[in-house]
Write a sequence for this structure.
């Protein structure tokens, strides 16, 4: 269990239930995952987070699958287990193949490695990289 | 200055110079950026890092620009200034537009935000997300 | 299980037991939580950590509940599940309401989000912010 | 310089300028700090971030100064220099004394310390801490 | 379960099985731990990671036990539970005593603490520390 | 400049000056580095931090140089530039060779890399690693 309980449809406020139903409609499934059920303790935060997520992860300049992989990358670097699980699942649902998953992990690992070496060396930023 | 000096071509070992020259050949420029000049104090680590980077960031299942954006995402979450600068520059060189950069930052910000909220809530992973 | 076992009162050294009993006296409960039972493998580290915690989290310029919320914020950013659980429980015990918990998560999420965007942009610090 | 330039009032879009002016009005100063001038390359992200920040950091269940200190705590754990500078300045502007600043740093340091020790010990969460 | 399944010897490719057998030979045990079984979904990444690990953690300028303790320190700061468990076990197998483990945790905690305080203070680097 | 000014000997309290003088005596130099001069705004935090540092980094089960390298490793993973600089300098002063520095960076990079891959895979901890 988390630091708060997971709320059922019967336990949430009307505002939170409306968010749950919007999640269902957009995703085409009756399932509402645990994150939203925990967040429903604060309906305003729930609604703001969901509304923003729809915009950020929706159609735009980057491919939806690419966005999910970037989400996985950030979540991995931050060590958020739930986020890695949920967004890896979302990436697979959007077509990420096993080979792409392997490459994603390879790039994450490479970036982590050089992040560490660069920080240990405290390398000055090249003038050529500055805008 | 960093924790080590930046080595000129004249100061590095033959093994390190060979890496510098491979970087030049692959990138089509005479410029060798500071990271490699700092890393050249350990020619074996320099060579291993460069050889691995070529493989990971080279042709594969993911688009080279996508790989750079994932690299930026990880580097941002880890707070590596040099890495953010160098890989944002690399992404721009591979065609990242200002609009794509904005979306990348939006996804990074969104992921960071929910990473924090999820971790604060300590949400249990849904069974449906587990393999 | 952790990387070390949890020690019972019967298994710990007299120095560690004295710390356990001080924890009990200060908190008004017989329960000693797992962190201290794991840390008791190193009685000196146990004692130093507890003695310092008492000072830092004790009466001072900041309200005890505010201190717990700051503790939760740091622990969340660092991804320490145990710490998020234990200090969220402590905050609740010191009166944190569900509405305050929601706001705390909102601020954490906002800070994480702008931390990511600022780091991705590598914004120079304004002169006006420097002492 | 950052990964993007800082935009002057003359260089930004009307939508971004409207945000700048809202920042000025709310803060009672003509100064718009670098974060917003960098973010103005993406007016939609600028607007969404500012609108959300107003809500999260505005009046609510927690004292505005407490919110700023939580913001500093998260930014410190994430190593965001700009954010530490700007929100420490904001906290001072909202009345944080030198003594409170010292206590804030003490709590951050204490949390970081036990985050590390707990993670190294991999302590299981006590049942009593779970909701 | 993770984001991928753990592969048995019967399920992996010949290239991955060769890595498993090299792990067995080098460690003198038939047991192949979960990390490698998960990574075997991408035989090339598996092989590259293992080959590099052998070099980095093998004989060199630093004592093998010291290398494991450094590995634990990094993994702790990054909040990687699996890595803390596996490398603490490896350190114990290489002779780390309970007293050394306690000191390792003490140093990690001290470093985390001052990392937080220094970052909160945004202390300028002394000229004397720069190369 | 940081979030607070650096205090000269003339500006600090007698309690803080006593800490400065103890630092001088222990290190055999008149130089007091910036961290302590910034921390002197809170003499109690200054004293507690210094007293604890002396114990943790002093004689014990681990070699002083090993402790410094562990300190560098944690500071690198946390992205604390000042800490990386100051403790790398301290490690060099205690005899760390260029070859050892290279190996330290190699281990840090390797750990960062597998931290990322393991977290991305969300590998379950092997029973054999649990105490």
């Amino acid at each position: 269990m988390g630091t708060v309980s997971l709320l059922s449809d019967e336990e949430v406020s009307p505002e939170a239930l409306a968010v749950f139903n919007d999640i269902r409609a957009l995703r085409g499934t009756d399932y509402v995952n645990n994150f939203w059920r925990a967040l429903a303790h604060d309906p305003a935060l729930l609604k703001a987070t969901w509304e923003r997520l729809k915009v950020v992860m929706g159609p735009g300049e980057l491919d939806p699958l690419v966005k999910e992989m970037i989400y996985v990358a950030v979540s991995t670097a931050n060590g958020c287990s739930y986020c890695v699980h949920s967004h890896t699942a979302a990436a697979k649902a959007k077509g990420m193949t096993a080979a792409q998953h392997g490459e994603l992990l390879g790039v994450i690992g490479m970036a982590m490695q050089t992040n560490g070496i660069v920080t240990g060396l405290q390398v000055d930023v090249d003038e050529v990289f500055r805008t």
In short: The two ends of chain B are 47 Å apart (CA to CA).
